[in-house]
Design goal:
seven-stranded parallel beta sheet; 7 helices; 7 strands
Amino acid sequence: MPLKEFSLEGKAAVVIGAENPVGRAASIALAEAGAKVLIASQEPGTDKQLKEVAKAAGAGGAKVSIRVQHAAIRADLSSTAELAVKEVGGLDILVNAIDAPFYGPAEATDDSAFDKVIESNLKTVWMSCQEGSRVMLRRGGGVIVNVVSVLSERGVPNASLYCAAQAAILNLTRALALEWARKGIRVNAIKAGWLEEEKGPATNNDEFSKNLTKYLPDNKLIKPEELAGALIYLVSPAAGFVTGESIAIDGGLLCRV
């Protein structure tokens, strides 16, 4: 019985930002757990990446559909949520693996950068939750997981705007969990530590990345697929009474003062 509580057999899932490393890992994990998955892009022009993710996620025979969209456009998110009903039979699970990092000194950052960072992170996740919830509410409920950075809880120099946007998403998760608790929608977050990803700030082999690795409690970066276990737990029946929470997958980083 305990293992059956983690099965997603018969569930329909949507992953927004499936072309990103975390979105790819999420798509594969959901499919392996038995869900039918609609993988959707964060940005257009990512057809090739989505096809590669779909091939990996569907390797075990799971149904996987592709939707190229621009997640910063509400109409696209609305269409994706409705398409999930037609393509994979519903919308039981929504994973927002949306991420738009921004680094630069605060004193040199203008208002256009502020608008872009807030829109690409906070507003996009807000709209995705909104449009996804409308379909879920019609169908009696669902589960939303927002993937954020550990910078939602900690600040670092030259990333003030990004830190602020990530913190806002984390508190948005808590507020939506309260608002939808009696309507059948659970909302949680995964706080991802510094990831081992191509072209990521932690893998540039520069002074910052070298110092960062020394600072990490276990002296290593996190692989995106290492977030999969927490994700499957949060969207499964095993976490049926878990909402408004966040799980940090960070190798103990947030334990530091």
